[in-house]
Amino acid sequence: MKYNIKNQIAPALARGLKVLELLAQEESELSLKSISERLTIPTPSLWRILCVLRDNGYLLYDENKKTYRLGFKFLYLGNILLNRMGFRSQARGYLKQLVELTGETAELSTRVKDQLILIDQVEGPEAVRLFSRIGSAYPYFHATAPGKVYLAHTTGEKLKRVMDRMGLPKITKHTITKFTELENELKSVKERGYGFDRQEMRIGVSRIASPIYDQMGNIMACLGVAGPSFRITIKNHEKIGKWTKDLAEKLSAELIEQAGAGL
Predict the structure, then answer these.
(1) 262 pLDDT more than 70
(2) CA dist 176 → 100, 137, 159, 173 (Å)
(3) What is the DSSP letter of 142?
(4) Would you say residue 6 has pLDDT above 50?
(5) Using CA atoms, how far apart are residues 26 and 124, in angstroms rounded to an integer?
(6) CA 70 to CA 47: how far, in whole Å?
(7) Rounded alpha-carbon distances, angstroms, from residue 45 to 9, 42, 87, 94, 261
(8) Which residue among 66, 103, 110, 208 sits deepest, i.e. has the most Cβ atoms within 10 Å of its Cβ?
(9) What topology is assigned to 4-71 in CATH?
(10) What is the distance between the alpha carbons of residues 260 and 242, in angstroms, rounded to a whole number?
(11) Per-domain boundaries in the chain
């Protein structure tokens, strides 16, 4: 990456971009000192850059830990890009199909650093239904279906490192809190092609989610359903899971074909 001319014209901007790139690559949050040491930016200059990025929503600052991470402004900008690429509009058709098949609320979620973000949703027609705000964040990957899908594609020592960092807190009495038990669950998720959680994040709520892949075989989002646990049950989750998986695979194929065509 060449910054020769840009560095001379706008050195603070060039440094700001390096800060954002560093935080995007790191799995953990970083302190001012850590950022300064890694990028060799003088502390006073770096502090001013971080303040500007924080005040404009590009960074989030944890006052207790004195650390920085990427802010949700990037999700907003990313959503604009997705809309312009047609991804959201294409996915919405599949969300509606999932609602028609299941009668439950259909969700589209993606990963932003260590959080799952709901980026679109179509409500089900049932009198008792689940509704979450677009942009809602779910920080516990081990306790929700989309999170399990992402974790199922992270294996070996990397999975162990990720879970050591995130932890396995007990959210409800149904939450998996043992790493070996989670490993077995993730193997099942990979084999069947969808994740399932029953009251693990919230009592009375169950979710099912399947991965949407890009042309490189990486997960770009999850397609899923959410609803009351008395309707999404152990008895019918395989049927709902198959519907979800089939639609996610069709959406993946459509997006991959579109990318291959350069559209």
Answers:
(1) no
(2) 31, 20, 15, 9
(3) G
(4) no
(5) 38
(6) 16
(7) 16, 6, 39, 48, 45
(8) 208
(9) Arc Repressor Mutant, subunit A (1.10.10)
(10) 27
(11) 4-71, 74-260
User: Pick from 32, 40, 26, 36: which is nearest to 70 by CA?
Assistant: 26
Is residue 127 predicted with pLDDT exceeding 60? Answer: no
Instruction: List the one residue out of 95, 17, 84 whose CA is nearest residue 49.
Output: 17
On average, the pLDDT of the chain sits at 87
Predicted confidence at residue 257, as pLDDT, reads 85
Cβ–Cβ < 8 Å for 96, 115? no
Are the CB atoms for 113 and 70 separated by under 8 Å? yes
| 74-260 carries CATH number 3.90.1150.10 | no
76's enclosing H/E stretch is helix 73-85
Percent of the chain's residues with pLDDT above 70 = 89
Q: List alpha helices for 193-236, DSSP H.
A: none
CA distances to 45, 98, 126, 225 from 102, in Å = 54, 6, 10, 8
Please state the length of the chain: 263
- Chain segment 68-102, per-residue pLDDT in tens: 998 878 777 766 665 555 677 789 999 999 999 99
